Automatic annotation (TrEMBL):
GO BP field: DNA-templated transcription initiation; response to stress
Pfam family membership, one: Sigma70_r4_2
Family membership noted in the UniProt record: Belongs to the sigma-70 factor family. ECF subfamily.
Keywords: DNA-binding, Sigma factor, Transcription, Transcription regulation
Domain RNA polymerase sigma-70 region: 12-79
PANTHER family per record: RNA POLYMERASE ECF-TYPE SIGMA FACTO, RNA POLYMERASE SIGMA FACTOR
Alphabetical list of PROSITE patterns matching this protein: SIGMA70_ECF
RNA polymerase sigma factor 70 region 4 type domain location: 122-173
Lineage, opening ranks: Bacteria, Bacillati, Bacillota, Bacilli, Bacillales
Coiled-coil regions listed: none
Signal peptide: none
Family matches, as InterPro entries: RNA_pol_sigma-70-like (IPR039425), RNA_pol_sigma-70_dom (IPR014284), RNA_pol_sigma70_ECF_CS (IPR000838), RNA_pol_sigma70_r2 (IPR007627), RNA_pol_sigma70_r4_t2 (IPR013249), RNA_pol_sigma_r2 (IPR013325), RNA_pol_sigma_r3/r4-like (IPR013324), WH-like_DNA-bd_sf (IPR036388)
Protein name: RNA polymerase sigma factor
Length: 184
């Protein structure tokens, strides 16, 4: 898994995905939020594999999942204008936290790390711009502009459930069309 590509990661997701979901759900107490944070954790683990020291895999995974869930919960608490269960952290915020940053106790990021995050953010914006319009619209509003489902529904004239459905389908589209290599 560590030396292979995305196709070697699927067995890992099948083996640990449910465990990660239950760990995240225990912190968040929301199935919707737990699903989204679980996806973020899986992506974060995949990106962090080169830095994994090959000791205590399950504890490493648990630490990432719990820290990510706590970060999400804190972020959500700082944004009281969003309705409970209607939001999740912006995609940019999710990508700015790395497993190294959570495990390392250094108080400020290195200049190189900041530059890498900025480049990744630029690449992300470019990739979002290439999404189908009906997905791009809700992804930009929800993740980048941090709007709630209700706000997006009001602006686009869609029903709230349609907004949720489009975001779900957009996430599926991203999983099918985006690879880690696209951002390196």
């Amino acid at each position: 898994m560590r030396d292979g590509g995305p196709e070697h990661y699927r067995p890992f997701v099948q083996a640990y995905g449910t465990y990660i979901y239950h760990t995240v759900h225990a912190v968040l107490q929301s199935p919707h939020d737990a699903e989204d944070v679980t996806q973020e954790v899986l992506i974060q683990i995949y990106r962090s594999l080169p830095n994994y020291r090959m000791d205590g895999l399950k504890s490493w995974i648990t630490r990432i999942a719990v820290n990510r869930a706590i970060d999400y919960k804190r972020s959500k608490a700082r944004r009281p204008e969003q309705l409970s269960g209607a939001g999740e952290e912006a995609l940019q915020r999710a990508t700015s936290v790395t497993a190294i940053g959570m495990l390392d106790a250094t108080p400020s990021p290195a200049a190189e790390e900041v530059a890498m995050k900025q480049e990744w953010s630029r690449a992300l914006h470019e990739r979002v711009g290439g999404m189908p319009e009906h997905y791009r619209e809700v992804v930009e509003a929800f993740y980048m502009e941090e709007k709630s489902y209700e706000q997006i529904a009001a602006e686009t004239g869609l029903e709230r459930k349609s907004v949720e459905s489009r975001l779900y389908r957009a996430r599926s589209w991203m999983r099918r069309h985006w690879r880690k290599e696209d951002f390196e």
